């Protein structure tokens, strides 16, 4: 009868990124370079624990009331408050007008999953629009809860720049009230962000069509080294949408605090201003209760350790300053590596134009290398990246950047620049 | 004679919905389901489409009381609601074994240097050591299953996370119907409802102050017995220290129960949140797992799901450390397929689990010295809970306390009704759960007399009222 039911569970392909990690571990060649997963490495290729995080750890462990008790369902208040301040800014009108609900989430993915689960309750028939291309997991997160997804044009491979026209016309032709997932900064995987004027056109079109925005903010401060600069799109979006629609923001502290594995993040809902017939406090309380229910049914309450560290960094002025300079350390090293890689490729006379590597921002560069080039990079040169040609610039350092440039030069010449 | 009409009751707790329909008899269970779904969709639609229309979900029963406790000005206030272990000074102390592991982690910076993502299914060393602890040490017969690679594993956000992944997996592929005990941990039905289950059945567990195995098995038989042709059903079993009653089946009763569960081809979901808190012996407390994995007795064709947590027995509550393991009786291929689906679920929910707690648990499990200390810590904790119980028994003339082997673990199910619980809270600032569950660990030298006096007073009050 049901004896063989389990036998038919389908074997899924391994997750592309996590799979690179395991191939890399098995590779015995002396020189190998990991440009796969998006985690920061220092100039010696090692993971880097931020000095601000080390100091926060000390403070927490030395504190007399350090324990492992449960956090509340909504998470650590010191984290969620500090996090919304950092994201929305000290001058945020939404915060001043008390229009924000924030809860702790399992980093960015957990926040996106919460957005999906929550929105499924209010608008399960809405279409979710994702950028083409986007982070590999976006589609799965929304489809897992039953949403249908669509894409909007983003990257123009011919010019290696933003396809603004295609983007805006997708916004305009989407059914009114659709949900748009926007990368707040350091677009993953392309590393290409709209400039200020382009953001204005994008957000104006969204307001016009009464769409709902989910900002995925995974790299604030990591991209440019400046928290405010990297929050430009989010804050502009909140301003433009403040009378139009609720805005959801999924905030991760994986990259900018360098604690990928501790899963610290926040989920924010910013409510629009409404006329007096609507009791916003009541709506906020209802939404908060629904978010609590989601958390309770999936993990009871969020993990404490990472939350305490980030909260300490955000609420101790000395550590906050240290953190700001830590972010400058990371972002400036990455920017330096972008320049060195480009310069080496130019020096090697590698066919094609490589200026986009310098123009892109954040952890990644969409190199434009084809899947077969990527395959050859791995096979012949032990340089690993995802098949889309996305390279994690954080994996470059002064001792391997030239090696990587030469490897890219070899594969591009092998296949010919027409394949680029 | 065939009835021409039947009554359909739809209960949907997330929406506070209870609908009762008189319908013409529908010819098949499948049609009934289609009918019910269409009704449900109509009603859910009322709420859909606007953020303004969202109903307010009721506050969580347990954690809500804690919020209230925090603002209570009475200096004698006593919180007996939450299942966190506190020592005789009312403090939440990190276990010596865990504190040592933390110190090692802090001193040896290299152990903590890489704060990178864990793999989707968790830290590999943690996996190895947890599997060894569960399937070799707690349940020696499980070693063979590990050798044959028949156990899937994911590190989870403690017990709740394990149950959430379990219910998402089961509801996607195998079953959307589950049995849970009545009463059970308040969050069980919430977890299953919100992760794809469509039917939650309650089996009789506790009646008139006693475990009711006959009622339990009768319930299962009635609704899961012969003739049932649709998808298999699941059943949640509390491995030990049943929450909230603290009343567990004896080993003999478990055999009877599992024989029936097996006969009815139910899928066992073992919720093991309190391993070690019953007898004080971590390994002995895995009794139910050992019984279920006795291959001479049972073969679980649709797998056995073990949801396990280190929240209580390592005191790592807020760090969210636990695991889900799935035992399949089939082949390595089936196991790998399940692995891949579990990973997909995790990837879509939170990518990868938090690292810190699992690093600590792994240190404790992997060092023989720390592990010995841990075994001792658990013994001490269980010992204190036992002694609190005997002190209550000495001060209160309660039948439920007379037999020291009756109540297991952290909780005492007082049997006090809601109005008594309200009086305790309003008059004495003593906080119990609404169902009368009292967390023993909140009692200590400084408050036990006060609490006993209050309990005596309210139970008198109850008697008078009933007389």
Automatic annotation (TrEMBL), chain A:
Gene Ontology CC annotations of this record: cytosol; peroxisome
| Additional remark text | In eukaryotes there are cytoplasmic, mitochondrial and chloroplastic isozymes.
Which named protein is this?
A: Aspartate aminotransferase
Known EC number: 2.6.1.1
Coiled-coil regions, chain positions: none
DNA repair as a keyword of this entry, yes or no, is no
Q: What is the taxonomic lineage of the source species?
A: Eukaryota, Fungi, Dikarya, Ascomycota, Saccharomycotina
The answer on whether this UniProt entry bears the keyword Transferase reads yes
Q: Which Gene3D superfamilies match?
A: Aspartate Aminotransferase, domain 1 (3.90.1150.10), Type I PLP-dependent aspartate aminotransferase-like (Major domain) (3.40.640.10)
Q: Which family does it belong to?
A: Belongs to the class-I pyridoxal-phosphate-dependent aminotransferase family.
TrEMBL record, chain B:
What cofactor does this chain's UniProt record say it requires?
Answer: pyridoxal 5'-phosphate
Q: What domain of life does the UniProt record list for this protein's source?
A: Eukaryota
According to the UniProt entry, its GO molecular function terms are: L-aspartate:2-oxoglutarate aminotransferase activity; pyridoxal phosphate binding
User: Where does the Aminotransferase class I/classII large domain start and stop, copy by copy?
Assistant: 76-455
Biological process terms from the Gene Ontology for this record are: L-aspartate catabolic process
Alphabetized CDD domains for the sequence: AAT_like
Reaction(s) catalysed by this chain's protein: L-aspartate + 2-oxoglutarate = oxaloacetate + L-glutamate
Entry-linked InterPro entries: Aminotransferase_I/II_large, Asp_trans, NHTrfase_class1_PyrdxlP-BS, PyrdxlP-dep_Trfase, PyrdxlP-dep_Trfase_major, PyrdxlP-dep_Trfase_small
Q: Give the Enzyme Commission number.
A: 2.6.1.1
What is the uppermost EC class here? transferase
The Gene Ontology CC terms held by the record are:
mitochondrion
Q: Which Gene3D superfamilies match?
A: Aspartate Aminotransferase, domain 1, Type I PLP-dependent aspartate aminotransferase-like (Major domain)
What keywords are annotated for this sequence in UniProt?
A: Aminotransferase, Pyridoxal phosphate, Transferase
Q: What else is known?
A: In eukaryotes there are cytoplasmic, mitochondrial and chloroplastic isozymes.
Family recorded in the similarity comment: Belongs to the class-I pyridoxal-phosphate-dependent aminotransferase family.
- Quaternary assembly: Homodimer.
Name-wise, this protein is Aspartate aminotransferase
Q: Which organism is it from?
A: Lachancea dasiensis
């Amino acid at each position: 009868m049901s004896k063989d039911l389990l036998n038919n569970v389908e074997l899924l392909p391994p997750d592309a990124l996590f799979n690179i990690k395991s191939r890399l571990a098995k590779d015995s060649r002396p020189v190998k370079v990991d440009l796969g997963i998006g985690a920061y490495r220092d100039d010696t290729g090692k993971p880097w624990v931020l000095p601000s995080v080390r100091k926060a750890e000390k403070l927490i462990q030395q504190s007399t009331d350090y324990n492992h008790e449960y956090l509340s369902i909504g998470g650590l208040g010191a984290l969620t408050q500090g996090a919304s301040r950092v994201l929305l800014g000290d001058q945020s009108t939404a915060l001043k007008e008390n229009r924000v609900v924030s809860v702790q989430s399992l980093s960015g993915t957990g926040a996106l999953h919460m957005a999906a689960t929550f929105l499924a309750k209010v608008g399960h028939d809405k279409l979710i629009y994702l950028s083409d291309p986007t982070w590999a997991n976006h589609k799965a997160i929304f489809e897992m809860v039953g949403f249908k997804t669509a894409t909007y044009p983003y990257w123009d491979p011919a010019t290696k720049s933003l396809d603004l026209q295609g983007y805006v016309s997708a916004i305009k032709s989407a059914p009114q009230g659709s949900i748009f997932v926007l990368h707040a900064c350091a677009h993953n995987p392309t590393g290409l962000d709209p400039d200020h004027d382009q953001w204005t056109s994008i957000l104006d079109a969204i307001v016009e069509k009464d769409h709902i925005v989910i900002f995925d903010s995974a790299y604030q401060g990591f991209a440019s080294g400046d928290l405010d600069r990297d929050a430009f799109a989010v804050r502009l979006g909140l301003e433009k949408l403040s009378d139009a629609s609720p805005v959801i923001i999924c905030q991760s502290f994986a990259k900018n605090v360098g604690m990928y594995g501790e899963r610290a993040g926040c989920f924010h809902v910013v409510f629009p201003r409404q006329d007096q017939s609507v009791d916003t406090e009541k709506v906020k309380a209802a939404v908060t209760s629904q978010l609590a229910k989601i958390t309770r049914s999936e993990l009871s309450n969020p993990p404490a350790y990472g939350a305490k560290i980030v909260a300490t960094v955000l609420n101790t002025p000395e550590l906050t300053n240290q953190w700001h300079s830590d972010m400058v350390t990371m972002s400036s090293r990455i920017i330096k590596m972008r320049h060195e890689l480009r310069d080496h490729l130019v020096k090697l006379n590698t066919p094609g134009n490589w200026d986009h590597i310098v123009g892109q921002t954040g952890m990644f560069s969409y190199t434009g290398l084809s899947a077969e080039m990527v395959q050859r990079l791995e096979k012949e040169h032990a340089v690993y990246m995802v098949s889309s040609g996305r390279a994690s610039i954080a994996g470059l350092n002064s001792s391997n950047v030239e090696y990587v440039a030469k490897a890219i030069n070899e594969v591009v010449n092998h296949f010919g620049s027409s394949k680029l | 004679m065939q009835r021409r009409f039947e009554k359909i009751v739809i209960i949907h707790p997330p929406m506070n919905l209870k609908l009762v329909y008189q319908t013409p008899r529908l010819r098949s269970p499948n049609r009934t389901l289609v009918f019910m779904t269409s009704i449900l969709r109509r009603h859910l639609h009322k709420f859909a489409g606007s953020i303004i229309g969202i109903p307010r979900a009721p506050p969580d029963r347990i954690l809500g009381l804690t919020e209230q406790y925090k603002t209570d000005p009475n200096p004698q206030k006593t919180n007996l609601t939450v299942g966190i272990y506190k020592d005789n000074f009312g403090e939440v102390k990190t276990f010596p074994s865990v504190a040592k592991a933390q110190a090692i982690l802090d001193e040896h910076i290299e152990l903590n240097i890489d704060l990178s993502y864990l793999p989707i299914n968790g830290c590999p060393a943690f996996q190895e050591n947890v599997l060894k602890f569960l399937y070799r040490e707690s349940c020696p017969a499980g070693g063979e299953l590990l050798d044959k690679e028949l156990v899937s594993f994911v590190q989870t956000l403690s017990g709740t996370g394990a149950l959430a992944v379990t219910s998402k997996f089961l509801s996607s592929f195998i079953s959307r119907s589950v049995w849970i005990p009545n009463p059970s941990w308040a969050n069980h039905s919430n977890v299953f409802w919100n992760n794809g289950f469509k039917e939650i059945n309650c089996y009789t567990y506790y009646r008139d102050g006693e475990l009711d195995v006959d009622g339990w098995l009768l319930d299962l038989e009635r609704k899961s017995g012969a003739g049932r042709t649709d998808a298999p059903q699941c059943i949640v079993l509390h491995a030990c220290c049943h929450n909230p009653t603290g009343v567990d089946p004896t080993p003999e009763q478990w055999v009877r129960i599992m024989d029936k569960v097996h006969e009815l081809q139910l899928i066992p979901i073992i919720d093991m949140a309190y391993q070690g808190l019953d007898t004080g012996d971590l390994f002995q407390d895995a009794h139910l797992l050992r019984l279920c994995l006795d291959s001479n007795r049972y073969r679980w064709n649709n797998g056995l799901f073990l949801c396990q947590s280190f929240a209580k027995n390592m005191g790592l509550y807020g760090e969210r450390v636990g695991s889900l393991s799935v035992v399949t009786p089939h082949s390595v291929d089936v196991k790998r397929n399940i692995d891949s689906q579990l990973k997909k679920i995790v990837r879509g929910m939170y990518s990868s689990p938090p690292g810190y707690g699992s690093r600590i648990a792994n240190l404790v499990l992997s060092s023989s010295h720390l592990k010995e200390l841990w075994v001792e810590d658990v013994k001490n904790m269980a010992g204190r809970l036992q002694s609190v119980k005997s002190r209550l028994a000495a001060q209160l003339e309660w039948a439920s306390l007379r037999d020291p082997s009756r109540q297991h673990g952290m909780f005492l199910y007082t049997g006090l009704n809601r109005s008594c619980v309200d009086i305790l809270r309003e008059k004495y600032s003593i906080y119990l759960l609404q169902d009368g569950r009292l967390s023993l660990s909140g009692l200590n030298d400084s408050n036990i007399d006060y609490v006993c006096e209050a309990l005596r007073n309210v139970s008198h009050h109850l008697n008078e009222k009933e007389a």
